[in-house]
Specification:
This protein is of the alpha/beta class. The chain has 10 helices and 10 strands. The structure holds pyridoxal-5'-phosphate.
Length: 312
């Protein structure tokens, strides 16, 4: 039942879903399996990926794979012409983030999918931040792999899923028992998987209401902040982004000083990726978008959920 619930959320068949321990495992597994069978071929990705893609790609580069990283423009959107150029030959996998974890900015997924499908290149979307928050439909946006993590939409931590398009010639590098039709060896975490299935059901039925609520909350918040702080820069204000994410740069301030003060007030925010908490430099995604170090160092990410209220 949980498998069917995940499949229903992204519009695929239940047999195209395998369960994993989370987004990182799903992503590593797709890249590893794709490069292993085609070691001379390239991995095409972007310069603003989550560490699960970025650092894994670097690790594979060290062991001899070649990686092409496409840059984003000042709006945080992938350079589609450069992507097209990179697809000419010898590509084992294209892996692109669907919704950015630090800015919420959405990639042009339909255009990316059309390009890759036209050139016959296997495509993976890291949709960890998108699934459960915005509509994700793998029949509409045709891809070969898509990574999901339960805890991004109120499911349990330590469980995720991977969509693998039926008929794709890909072999898992996780070796052991024949679980998940030999696509992910290891005993399944059944209680977590049930939690993921339930989270998918709830996300699907509540998505429209949540989106309306979150956009209203976030816009109100950004308006209030902009009124109070002249120096505040809302990242991605004019482009498509997730309803719940607000990344604001307080020019001239440093996140390192602001975060402990906000923490004392019970306000939990982050600077850069949550996975690299403790590093206070300018976040890479912002410097890639052309923000100066002095602006980017004051970047705070506020994440709203359906449990937030206007008074907060
Ligand atoms: N990809 C993105 C875009 C993420 O935001 C995250 C988690 O923050 C991951 C991958 C990794 O997912 P997990 O924490 O489930 O391993």
């Amino acid at each position: 039942k949980a498998r069917a619930s995940v499949a229903s959320l992204i519009n695929c068949s239940a047999n195209e879903i395998i369960f994993t321990s989370g987004g990182t495992e799903s992503i590593n597994s797709v890249i590893d399996g794709s490069l292993y069978d085609e070691p001379r071929k390239k991995l095409v990705t972007s310069t603003v990926e989550h560490a699960a893609v970025q650092d894994f790609a670097t690790a594979r580069e060290i062991t001899g794979s070649s990686v092409i990283r496409i840059r984003v423009n000042e709006k945080g959107c992938l350079d589609l012409e450069k992507l097209e150029d990179s697809l000419k030959s010898g590509v084992a996998l294209v892996s692109i983030i669907w919704a950015h974890n630090e800015t919420g900015i959405l990639s042009p997924v339909q255009e990316i999918a059309e390009l890759c499908n036209r050139e016959g290149m296997p495509l993976h979307f890291d949709a960890v931040q998108a699934v459960g928050k915005i509509p994700v439909d793998v029949t509409e946006v045709k891809c070969d792999f898509l990574s999901i993590s339960a805890h991004k939409f109120h499911g349990p931590k330590g469980v995720g899923a991977l969509y693998i398009r039926d008929g794709i010639g890909w072999r898992s590098r996780q070796i052991g028992g024949g679980q998940e039709k030999s696509r992910r060896a290891g005993t399944e975490a059944v209680p977590n998987i049930i939690g993921l299935g339930k989270a998918c059901e709830i996300a699907k039925s509540d998505m429209k209401t949540n989106t309306r609520k979150l956009i209203a909350l976030r816009n109100e918040f950004e308006k209030a902040i902009s009124k109070k702080f002249d120096s505040a820069v809302v990242v991605g204000r004019k482009v498509d982004r997730l309803p719940n994410t607000s990344n604001i740069c307080f020019a001239g301030y440093e996140a390192e000083s602001l975060i402990p003060l906000l923490d004392q007030l019970g306000i939990c925010v982050s600077h850069g990726s949550a996975c690299s908490s403790g590093s206070w430099g300018p976040p890479r995604v912002l410097t890639e978008m052309g923000y100066s170090d002095s602006i980017a160092k004051g970047s705070l990410r506020f994440s709203f959920s359906k449990y937030n209220e206007e008074k907060e």
